[in-house]
Design a protein that fits this description.
ZnF_BED_domain_contain, Nucleotidyltransferase, domain 5, metal-binding, zinc ion binding, alpha/beta, zinc, single chain, 4 domains
Length: 315
């Protein structure tokens, strides 16, 4: 074993080294050279915490947790003396974001002539709408590389004009306006308007030829359409309305028809809960609802969005 370490890795037993100037590595020196360890400092700690929080999807307030501080102190007691607060950590995250943005712009995408993009909009669990943009290109080693270059919050309606504005704002940050060869999206109708708005701004982009629908989404829609057609109910011969398929958000479904004193309170509460869920799970519906309430009641004080919570935990 000692011969193997000495011949292949240049590691020798310190006791067997004849001269202190001999060019041999000890095991500690070899490990240190193989994995150089960064020195602990306020800056290195903030950077490590930012990457840890983002990778694990944790809140910045975790730095105030006594259990988390105890864990860091267990690793190294000096950490507690330089542990940063939540506000400084948030500011450091902004610096790291701009550093990575500059690195992507100047080193990864600066020499790319043709870049493809995929984009999608969705609503997060905290009822905030986002638009993500991913750039795809072939690097110098002929490997397909994908980089998320933007995640923008969508304000207002998810219209084609709004999505186009957000998309163009993101690619302009990387000076990729003239490098678009294709944009892949789902088959939502608003994406057609988005493509036309992008075409009006980027002459190289053609909405007809460079806008590509997601094949997986197309297959998903086709399968649902087939299942709906195969499993649909036969038409009602008596032309009676099927109340089971009635839209639960219809104004006629909010309350039961008056029936003397036999009001169905459980049904009313259930439909109010459906209405709250219907409004709460869409930023656009929630905004319109709050605006309508303020107009109807002539309220100068904005309505709190938390009043639309569909479920309230009780004891």
């Amino acid at each position: 074993m000692s011969q193997h370490l000495h011949l292949l890795h240049g590691i020798a037993n310190p006791k067997s080294i004849s001269s202190p100037l001999a060019k041999h590595n000890t095991m500690d020196q070899y490990v240190h050279n193989l994995h150089p360890r960064k020195a602990l400092s306020p800056s290195s700690l903030k950077t490590a915490l930012v990457y840890f929080i983002c990778d694990a999807d944790l809140p910045f307030s975790i730095t105030k947790s006594p259990a988390f501080q105890a864990l860091l102190e267990l690793c190294k007691s000096a950490v507690t003396n330089i542990l940063v607060c939540q506000a400084r950590l948030t500011a450091h995250l902004t610096k790291i974001y701009f550093y990575h943005q500059e690195f992507i712009c100047n080193y990864l995408l600066s020499s790319k002539i043709d870049v493809s993009f995929t984009t999608d909009a969705w609503t997060s669990p905290n009822i905030t709408a986002y638009l993500a943009v991913t750039a795809h290109y072939i690097d110098t080693e002929f490997k397909l590389t994908s980089i998320i270059i933007g995640l923008a919050e969508i304000q207002g309606d998810h219209s084609g004009a709004s999505l186009a504005t957000q998309f163009l704002t993101i690619i302009l940050c990387y000076d990729l306006k003239q490098n678009i060869i294709s944009i892949t999206t789902d088959n939502a109708s608003v994406n057609n308007q988005m493509a036309q708005d992008i075409e009006a701004t980027c002459p190289k982009f053609c909405a007809k030829d460079n806008m590509v629908g997601c094949m997986a989404h197309t297959i998903h829609l086709a399968s649902h359409g087939g299942l709906k057609a195969l499993g649909s109910r036969p038409p009602n011969k008596n032309n009676q309305v099927d109340n089971n398929n009635e839209n639960p958000m219809s104004i006629t479904s909010l309350v039961d028809p008056p029936d003397g004193l036999n009001l169905q309170y459980n049904s009313i509460i259930g439909k109010i809960s459906l209405l709250a869920s219907y409004l709460h799970h869409s930023p656009q519906r929630r905004k319109k609802f709050i605006t309508t309430v303020n107009l109807v009641y002539n309220s100068d004080k904005p309505t709190n969005a938390n009043t639309l919570l569909s479920q309230v935990s009780t004891r």
